[in-house]
Amino acid sequence: MPDAHNHASILHTIGCFSGFSAVALGAFGAHALGKRLANGPDSATKLSNWRTAAAYHLIHTLAILYVAGRLDRQPGVGTAGVQRSSLPGYLFGLGNLLFSGSIYLLVLDTRRAYSRILGPTTPLGGLAYLAGWATLYWS
């Protein structure tokens, strides 16, 4: 079973990848997305949705890195304690994937080919974020 340092290392890697992608996707939204949407009928809403996804993505990336840093300072914690302490970071990562990821894809899906699949995914990501904050409190 991985110890606190191993979980911290995994979450640090997830956090760094998440931070990189949050900045890259935020920059894409700020500089290129408007041209891609070509002032369509709902382009303002889509740009707003993209900004929301990018903001949540970046905020929860910082939360992942916080959990990783906190774990790295908990040597000698038992297996149950490590799992409980690392769970918020994994939930924040899952939230980024489901919440922000589905919004990014919904904005890019101009033909609405995947909206029936992606639409219900967004609230599941929101629930993962909420569960992450709740488990962070109890860890």
From TrEMBL:
This protein's GO CC annotations: membrane
Membrane spanning residue stretches: 12-33, 53-69, 89-108, 117-138
Membrane topology (UniProt): Multi-pass membrane protein
Keywords in alphabetical order: Membrane, Transmembrane, Transmembrane helix
Localization terms from the record: Membrane
Main location: membrane
Domain of life, per lineage: Eukaryota
Signal peptide: none
PANTHER family from the UniProt entry: TRANSMEMBRANE PROTEIN 256
Protein name per its UniProtKB record: DUF423-domain-containing protein
Species: Geranomyces variabilis
